[in-house]
């Protein structure tokens, strides 16, 4: 049985030149819980007996939860307002008019074996490792500054149940995620974008962006990342896959060919950047709202029609290598 699930890939891109490190709540070293206008941090009762929980509330009542274990409290509190600031920045970038929207949660943990709960009623929880031996890209600073802006865009894309091709979802998430990352850490955004574009420059052969539809993941790659209860249920029921949550995979975990994934991220980013340069960021944002407005699969025919309607361009030309 094969499964289609979300892939964690650190966004590697950049923001326009006017970006600046002007948000003190997101600087690398600070103590306590910072304070900033438009963001409120409260400790609230936790629905997990092993973890404490903060509720971070941004403008229009948008909120996310931050879970943490006893060894990770300082990191959780240190980054809470920065994560709330991201919600405000994302709302601006996404033209998000929702009131009281709940965004994906995070879990700060020193437990290297921690597995987040998953289920239809459980909001996705991204794991941030505070163990000093954790790999660098799973640690607090990279996760908060580089990964979460990208992944929260995916949370927004799925708000109504739309299922679009990967070139659209990842191009949009990379474009917006890097704009937000650049507001928090311009140098990180610059380096990320250059690293991704280098993958595109060194690509061996065409990237076939139009063929980047959905990922198919091996079942065993999911089995190793779920709770014992979910694993037992998966083994008993071939059709069951835990809903929600974030997974991490290597290239060997896919049934589909993801060898060109890095180059495709860059090519998809360039598609969105090109539309922005020719038509302005606001037109691109409104196009995305249109594409992701309704539940179900977004077909190629629908995308061709929407690009023609919003930009007067031919999508097939945009997707050419």
Provide the descriptors you would attach to this structure in a database record:
321 residues; alpha/beta; Neutral Protease, domain 2; five-stranded mixed β-sheet; 10 helices
Overview of the molecule:
This protein has a single domain (24-318), classed as Neutral Protease Domain 2 (Neutral Protease, domain 2). 42% of the residues lie in helices and 10% in strands. The chain is built from ten helices and seven strands. It has a five-stranded mixed sheet with strand order 1-2-3-4-5, covered by helices on one side. It is globular, with a radius of gyration of 19 Å.
Which sequence of strands runs across the widest sheet?
1-2-3-4-5
Instruction: Return the CATH architecture.
Output: Orthogonal Bundle
Mean pLDDT: 87
CATH class: Mainly Alpha
The best one-word shape is globular
How much of the sequence lies in strands comes to 5-15%
Q: State the order of secondary-structure elements, H for helix, E for strand.
A: EEEHEEHEHHHHHHEHH
Can you tell me the CATH topology? Neutral Protease, domain 2
Largest sheet: 5 strands, mixed
Distance between the termini: 33 Å
Helix/sheet category: alpha/beta
Output the CATH homologous superfamily: Neutral Protease Domain 2
Radius of gyration (CA) equals 19 Å
Number of strands: 7
What is the number of helical segments per DSSP (H or I, 4+ residues)?
10
Percent helix, as a range, is: 40-55%
Give the low-confidence spans: 1-22
Any idea how many domains?
Answer: 1
